[in-house]
Write a structure and sequence with these properties.
Helices cover about 60% and strands about 5% of the residues. It has one helix and two strands; from the N terminus they run αββ. A hairpin with an 8-residue loop joins strand 1 and strand 2. The mean pLDDT is about 75.
């Protein structure tokens, strides 16, 4: 084989390995964010006083936002 072909094959292998490492780091970071996020939301499941929602007694289709 020519040296150029060997160099190209080595470069391709390095690119594949780097991509695999990057993807595994991103997957680990995503899993960590999801586990932290679900921990915060698992506490109070009640209504948020600052949330948007339908206004009581104003009929269908009327929405208000807490100030």
């Amino acid at each position: 084989m020519f040296e150029y072909e060997i160099d190209r094959m080595n470069h391709s292998q390095l690119v594949r390995e780097a991509a695999a490492r990057r993807l595994s780091r991103e997957a680990a970071a995503s899993a960590a964010r999801e586990s932290r996020g679900s921990g915060r939301r698992s506490g109070d499941q009640g209504a948020d006083p600052d949330a948007e929602g339908p206004a009581d007694g104003d009929g269908p289709g009327r929405f208000v936002r807490a100030a």
